[in-house]
């Protein structure tokens, strides 16, 4: 392959850009006018349940699928016309990765590295961090557990230090200890200026590692925001206990679903907590509990709110 | 061609190809041996019983002459099975099998154009088929020499027999690999590949055993593999040209279709 894996696109060029990308399978519209930009050097989480269109987008970016309409580019290269060059600069971990069972782990990694064309500069480090020993690598892949196969899958995707790694459900089958090692690897890749695009169902992990997230529903992008922005706009459950009867809190901005029972009030709070705390400040307030914001709640909002307007609510 | 993929494909088939090449050589050697031991008796039987003479023809071969026996050896179901292991079996499973197993995704995530992948696998399997047919032909030559039958055969024509056989089996290889690149599952790919082989074989054998149905042979690719005509210096160049055309059609189809196919996530 003539395209060197280390050639970087212009710094201003997004790592991934799609413009009104649509994909139709017969009657099924898998992607609908999807427009996203993933910046270079960020970890981008792509969220959505099964069938939402996550894998369709990933496969379109890698040239496995051809878009029905719209355009997509990866590292400044057109996915329809330059997919080979794109694959020279990316690493890909498919969901539920399948490997050659008759080969040893070491042979699989060597074979895929040779096909990639670049030296596997990160292999040793990745094996160490994911605790894949030499003895493990000498065993045939068909004898591996699911977690070990996933480790080899992660290593084959990252061993050549790609500019962009596209990882589909990367922690599937990994134990919690290895998951944390994997998060540290992602942090390291980001620090080295590499871009990570990964899809996941595991919301705490997305919250832990991602800079920005895109949420997709039935082929449409529901939102594309930083994790912090998403958390700020989620509803948190709050509980207050007063000395004596609880005051009327219905006028406090952002507070909803207020239920008063004697000295206790439960409600949901939308937005940041500062203005709310200032509004309820009183010597009669005995106790206040605010649940920590979680991405899960924000995610569920997009999936339970049937009236959510598509197209992104900020970037 | 991708060198890494080529070597890997060969390496994966190494044990199989060695075994089949050895068996093919032994089978090839058996034909002249069989002819030298039994042809006299069989000729007498054919003289006494015309029906036996008719049944001594199988496909384009005949057990009553050395070139005919060699032809028969190449068209016998056992020889067909040996060569079909690679030309139909491995070819039919090559791409559809990787697709079904999910490994095609990992492979195509590398910077390999789909056309290069297809051509590389086709080239790798073509070499294996060429080797198996060469082993068969070499076995026959050894048999002819060891049985002292050199006077009955022009050995200089044997490379053309090999080439004619290679073209025939390349046609089946191209068709099978094209099917493999067309379907996501191995069932339809291998099923259609086998059906194409068996249909061609059926048409050839039917015409050879039943004179009223002799016209069916014209529609069989096996009828354009004529070792006996080549060995008697009457080779028809049309047979070679036709086989080249039949090789090219599925190749062109696959090279056009495979890069344009949507490869959705494996079920």
What does this structure look like?
- The complex is a heterodimer of chains A (315) and B (267).
- In chain A, 31% of the residues lie in helices and 29% in strands.
- Chain A has 11 helices and 14 strands.
- Chain A has helices spanning 54-61, 83-89, 105-116, 123-129, 134-137, 146-158, 176-191, 203-209, 227-232, 273-280, 295-304, and strands spanning 16-25, 28-38, 43-47, 69-74, 77-78, 90-93, 164-168, 195-200, 212-217, 220-226, 235-242, 255-261, 264-270, 285-290.
- Chain B has 267 residues and is mainly α.
- In chain B, 75% of the residues lie in helices and 1% in strands.
- Chain B has 10 helices and 2 strands; from the N terminus they run ααββαααααααα.
- Chain B has helices at 3-48, 50-55, 66-75, 77-101, 103-108, 114-146, 158-182, 186-209, 227-231, 237-257; strands at residues 57-58, 61-62.
- Chain B is elongated and about 65 Å long.
- The mean pLDDT of chain B is 90.
Describe the SSE topology:
The complex is a heterodimer of chains A (315) and B (267).
Chain A: E1 16-25, E2 28-38, E3 43-47, H1 54-61, E4 69-74, E5 77-78, H2 83-89, E6 90-93, H3 105-116, H4 123-129, H5 134-137, H6 146-158, E7 164-168, H7 176-191, E8 195-200, H8 203-209, E9 212-217, E10 220-226, H9 227-232, E11 235-242, E12 255-261, E13 264-270, H10 273-280, E14 285-290, H11 295-304
Parallel strand pairs in A: 3-8, 3-9, 6-7, 7-8
Antiparallel strand pairs in A: 1-2, 1-4, 4-5, 9-10, 11-13, 11-14, 12-13
Helix pairs in contact in A: 3-6
Chain B: H1 3-48, H2 50-55, E1 57-58, E2 61-62, H3 66-75, H4 77-101, H5 103-108, H6 114-146, H7 158-182, H8 186-209, H9 227-231, H10 237-257
Antiparallel strand pairs in B: 1-2
Helix pairs in contact in B: 1-3, 1-6, 4-6, 4-7, 4-8, 6-7, 7-8, 7-10
